[in-house]
Amino acid sequence: MKRIGLRIEALDTLFFRDGRPFVASSRAESGLPTPQTLTGALRSWLLKRADCDFDLLRQDLKNGMPFAEALAEQELETIAQLRVQGPWLASFQNDEVNNLFLAVPAALKRVKKKQAIERLIPRKSLPGWSASEYWPLWLSKRVELEGLSGYLNLRGMQTFLQGQTPDSEDICTAEDLYTFEARTGIGMDTERKSNEEGLIYAVNLLRLKTGIGFYAELSLPTALESTLPKTDWVMPLGGEGRRVIVSITKPVTWPKAEPKGNQLQTQVLISPTLLETPQQVKSWQARSAAMHPIQGVSGWDLALGGPKPLRWMLPAGSVLYFESHASLPELSSEDASDLGWGTYLKGVSDYV
Predict the structure, then answer these.
(1) Residues facing 92 on adjacent strands
(2) pTM
(3) Across-strand partners of 5?
(4) Would 114 be classed as within a structural domain?
(5) pLDDT grade, residue 225 (50/70/90)?
(6) pLDDT for the residue 188
(7) Owning domain of residue 28
């Protein structure tokens, strides 16, 4: 399996939404693409290039055949081996990644009414805190804190993984990277080739700021790598028929840190991970955790022609703490990790 990087640039606004029905007088809100959105787009594009019989594939999937077996039936099993990670917001320079913008770790907070950033660390004991529960997160300073949202660049993430507090200059807001544009549309009657009376809808589309795109990584067999274009290519991504231009780029060198002495080791989620149940987090047996609220996530199943079942998602930026000798858990199942869920970076943290 070879690892390659992908540079993804929007040709116009983009649209990513969940599986809720799109009906008259509704407003569909775009968000950022989930890992499964990019994986589905890349798989579909590769299958189309390989002259896949989509009707046969759809029927096999409806009959309960695993995806890999359904592709093997058409001698396309190498596409089933494709593993995708990302996408992440990024800037580029000279066709290489200049910077990545990752969800701010939940252990970072802002001092209220100031720009200063503080880092919460686990505390081993606290009066009134049960020893059987997670270690609480602690800040020894007497300051008032507030939530911190936005994105941390690679330099700031390296600092955080080393157990230190990033500078506020390493954090940018969502407004620095993208915005949303409201559009209104009218439904069409395809048989009469005219407007469908009463069907007016609105959408909020994602527009990336100038110089901002997405970065993703592929792990793929050599046989599949040889089928990729040598030059840039255009493919659909998300809804509303929106297109992106994709090119191969040098993979990023991801930051990491190893614990020393009594330091804790950490897992910092840079992609959301899927949970079987919200209680699954307890099975990881972390010493402490700084987590963003668990969310519901869905999507559209092209094979079945309907929304996917609602699943639970632990957002990117969540941080798990483990003792230095502990084995780190795999946060997503093998099938989910192949779709890009549960990507994390290893770091360290002190505790008191």
Answers:
(1) 97
(2) 0.89
(3) 217, 249
(4) no
(5) confident
(6) 64
(7) 2-97+175-249
